[in-house]
Specification:
Blueprint lengths: L1 H11 L8 E4 L9 E2 L5 E2 L8 E3 L2 E3 L2 E5 L2 E6 L4 E10 L9 E7 L2 E9 L6 E6 L5 E8 L8 E11 L4 E3 L23 E2 L4 E4 L4 E5 L2 E2 L5 E5 L5 E4 L4 E5 L4 E11 L2 E11 L9 E4 L1 H4 L5 H15 L6 E3 L24 H10 L3 E6 L16 H11 L3 E4 L13 H16 L6 E4 L6 H4 L7 E3 L8 H8 L14 E3 L7 E4 L3 E5 L4 H13 L4 E3 L8 H7 L2 H7 L8 E5 L2 E7 L5 E6 L5 H8 L8 E6 L8 E6 L4 E7 L1 E6 L4 E8 L2
Parallel strand pairs: 16-23, 24-25, 24-33, 25-26, 26-27, 27-28, 28-29, 29-30
Antiparallel strand pairs: 1-13, 2-7, 3-6, 4-5, 6-13, 7-12, 7-14, 8-11, 8-13, 9-10, 9-12, 15-18, 17-21, 19-22, 20-21, 22-23, 31-32, 34-35, 35-36, 36-41, 37-40, 38-39, 38-41
The structure holds beta-D-galactopyranose.
Amino acid sequence: MLFMKWVLIFLFCCPVHLFARTVYLDELDTRYMVQDWGYPQVNKSVLGGPLRVAGVQYDRGIGTHSISRLLVALEGKALSFSGWAGADDLNDFGGNMEFELIADEVLVWTSGVLHKGMPALPFCIDLRGVRKLALLVKEGGDGIMYDHADWLDARFETMSGIMAEPCVPSAKINEAKYILTPQPSASPRINGPKVLGVRPGNPVLFTIPATGERPMRFNAEHLPDGLTLDPVRGVIKGTIRQAGTYNVALKAESSWGSDIRMLRIEAGDRICLTPPMGWNSWNCWGLKVDEQKVKDAADFMGKSLVQHGWAYINIDDGWEAEQRSGDGTLNGNAKFPDFRRLCGSIHDKGLKFGIYSSPGPQTCGGHLGSYGYEQKDAATWADWGVDYLKYDYCYYSQIAPAPTEVLIKHPYVVMRQALDRVKRDIVYCVGFGAPRVWYWGQEAGGNQWRTTRDITDEWNVVTAIGFFQDVCAPVVRPGQYNDPDMLVVGRLGQGWGDKVHDSYLTADEQYTHVSLWCLQSAPLLIGCDLSHIDDFTMNLLTNDEVIAVDQDPLAMPVRKLIRPEGQVWYKWLEDGSMAVGLFNVDPYFILWDQAKGETVQREKTAMTLTFSDLGLTGRFKVRDLWRQQDLGIFEGSYSTAVPYHGVRLIKLTPEK
Ligand code: GAL
């Protein structure tokens, strides 16, 4: 290795000094390395085995994960940083990753996209005069989990001591949570989906989402035979016998006024014609979820969110009994004494109910999975009244040890067939971050598929997950959605289920997160504790104009443009207008703000949207969707200042 070091220095012209000494990366305090999964390992891979890349074993280094980052304070004392970077041989799926070195906010080295099997890449950078060096490992654009990343034989040549620094959560930088959206008006406004897909013969449950003062009375003209409306609660129920398209005129009326809107009911083969909107227990409660927590979430949704179209209450992992009963039924554990009753109470609020399982013998959380009991489980869930299934790819490697795309898809098809045999419309979520799942998720009969690793409320993770979704966007259409994971807003658990805290994302980062998910027609699944929700989070989750971008019936694939000042994401909407997000994304600067430990108000960035870049000509009415304000008529372009890590979400409507 000594020889290689000098080869490196020669190749990259790293500065040398007679009195310099070597400090290995693994000698720094690795507790300060932030990563999305596992813990940094000294001289081992993240799984604890040897550091090995493309068959070559390295004695020293740090085994980490993509995504990760470490900030090193050099204060001008270091001369160089050299070593190798590579994807560890123990990556199950060989996901893509990218290593980057950032010296005082300047990208000085990038590995390009690497994956398992590729030889480690050498680097040697000149650090003279550099104050801070950031080591980043980024998602390589495919969203695949199990990206085990190694910094190998990495060392500083330095004149005196250097140290790793903590990266504090970004919310500490900018604590001001500001509300952009005005309160809904007192007079009725019908929100939520404009199209509903149901299967003839299966139970229908739809609550008309309407904001405005109560009491309110509802009406639904031209309801298909078999459906009835509760005029006080606005809940439509029943079973449609006859396939077909039914155009129903919904009306909401109160002493403040009235609103009318059409709802197209498509009774046929397809369900879930707009992205599901709901809550999932995982990101706040993890395996500590219990019946009371679920009921609390349902109470809150039934009271304050259903008016905006939120509908699903989904239990993630942690509900399962330790053993199946004699006839193979998997019941709830002691925390969930009676699922039929719980499900019924959720339906009584006009809401829907979701459950979780895995195709392997165990779930990701180590509970019993559905392997070998797919039909039994589907029947049990149908009997309880389940409306949504998250089927999470875990422990199937015990059945198919060398997973390939075909082998992973197979158990999803098996569960699809089982769901097709029960008399319920069950939204089907195909498990987490499997390789290229967006190409086969629909063939496996999924309505949505997790395109990425698990999200956390860390800016690097949210950007890594969110801003690469254009890769998979072309497959999106009504009933088939990419799922970039839950919304990490509000009060969340850490790890999950412990250390409940307010989302570590800043206010602007949360506006970015929700806007980007809506532009992508992503399933919106709230990950926070709904029983402790603050005004800021409510504002994020109840802007009906923003939600309408997500729920647009066309579900057109979103597109992305990269600009020096940030990114532009845009999609066509059913009414002939276009939703556009101007994002001020900068993954690097935050590291420096954090290092200073100061409250830093970053400058806004001026961004200009040139309409012809989106293929648009003519004059457009521009509306700010978060503020629900018209900004005027623009021709050719629109310029605005976008907050640091923030967004301007606008709608362009052609002016006749
Ligand atoms: C993970 C999944 C999480 C959660 C967890 C439960 O694999 O991505 O969203 O469902 O399993 O154990």
